[in-house]
Design brief:
The protein has 188 residues and is an alpha/beta fold. The protein contains 7 helices and 5 strands; from the N terminus they run E-H-E-H-H-E-H-E-H-H-E-H.
């Protein structure tokens, strides 16, 4: 990186359907844009419809979905974009691969208990899964493996969206400041 080149970052929000990933990403995006950053949001539902419609919901396909989104996010981040990703990404191993391959990666665990997500159920998916209309639904008949050591955790059943947004924004700003200090120290 050269001096004054903006620092890109992939902020990967993982959690159950209905936990608040997209809501938090949208709130964080508005705040970061107001700070003058280049920001892009990759929402799992939209990416699945537009880019990954060929994938199903097997473990292999879910991991491929995560891998593809990671590739897009990393390419954007290399160009100075802060990429906010809102995707269930249920398996730890797939998320760890992202952490291992994306140099500037931040994992945000959007944590809400299954019972709360089922109550919210904005798309009616839990109801359909409980009625056996959806197979391999994360949290019902397919596992969700929560992060063991996320960079940020937002407990959306206990805190406001604003509080969650503030946690993520603070972590992003701290990352950017640390990276800027590092660039200056390296003479870039």
């Amino acid at each position: 990186m050269t001096r004054n080149q903006p620092t890109g970052l992939v902020v990967w929000c993982t959690g159950l359907s209905g936990a608040g990933k997209t809501t938090i990403c949208n709130a964080v995006s508005k705040e970061l844009l107001a700070h003058g950053f280049k920001v892009e949001t990759l929402d799992g539902d939209i990416v699945r419809q537009q880019l990954n419609s060929d994938l199903g919901f097997s473990r292999k396909d879910r991991n491929e979905n995560v891998r593809r989104i990671g590739v897009v996010a990393q390419r954007l981040a290399r160009h100075g974009v802060i990429v906010l990703v809102a995707v269930i990404s249920p398996y730890r191993a797939a998320r760890q691969k992202l952490r291992d391959t994306i140099p500037d990666f931040m994992e945000v665990y959007v944590n809400a208990p299954l019972a709360v997500c089922e109550q919210r159920d904005p798309k009616g998916l839990y109801r359909r899964a409980r009625q056996k209309q959806l197979d391999r639904f994360t949290g019902i008949d397919d596992p969700y493996q929560p992060p063991l050591a996320p960079d940020v955790e937002c407990a959306t059943d206990q805190e406001t969206i604003k509080a969650s947004k503030n946690k993520v924004v603070a972590a992003v700003l701290a990352f950017v400041a640390a990276r800027s200090r590092q660039q200056v120290a390296n003479g870039n």
